[in-house]
Amino acid sequence: MYRNEKFNRWRRHPWHGLHTQMDGAEEGVVQVYVEMLPTDVVKYELDKASGFLMVDRPQRTTSSPPALYGFIPRTYCAEEVAKRCPGVEEADGDPLDICVYSERHINRSDIVLNARVVGGIQMIDDGEADDKIIAVLDGDNIWGDVQDISDLPQIKIERLQHYFSTYKLVPGKELNIKVDHVYGREEAMQVIAAAEKDYWNHFQDLHEQAKE
């Protein structure tokens, strides 16, 4: 039985009802809720209140994510995440984003998968920390053995940097986004730990109320 919990006939909230890791998962393998696919030109995002996937906005340009794009459950980017980003006082106040590479095309979102963390990109968006963890699909036949970001082709990282530096682009409006710092697996795990700490600092009461 999943974490010794009774079967829940209601759908679990993807952010609060799932766990960061499945029971028995190897170190560095996390659960991911997928919001967007590489084919999407509409920005989909989880509605935090209801737990349903919603349309955030149609992309103004033809920009689409070069990997599966979602978040790690029970993480939150707040004070602890911001501390890891020099010169930044705040984080974006969302679950920790993650991009997952898969050799086989996954053709639907609103799903959960296991991914092996290999690194990340320290993104600063208008003065807020907004890290993007980079991972590979656990057990993938091509990328499954990748352990660190240095094992990925450099072009994979460059495409992610380009996407996140341009996906909010509006003609005539200057963007204030930095994606210069790319880090490996060890630092990525520290960012995840900080985001988990932020989550429990902000949402522990929610889980205590659910037990009552």
TrEMBL record:
Stored InterPro entries: Pyrophosphatase, Pyrophosphatase_sf
Keywords in alphabetical order: Hydrolase, Magnesium, Metal-binding
Classification via NCBIfam families: PRK00642.1
GO biological process, one term: phosphate-containing compound metabolic process
Annotated GO CC locations: cytoplasm
Enzyme Commission no: 3.6.1.1
Top EC class of this enzyme: hydrolase
Top-level taxonomic group: Bacteria
Molecular function terms from GO: inorganic diphosphate phosphatase activity; magnesium ion binding
UniProt protein name: inorganic diphosphatase
Cofactor dependency: Mg(2+)
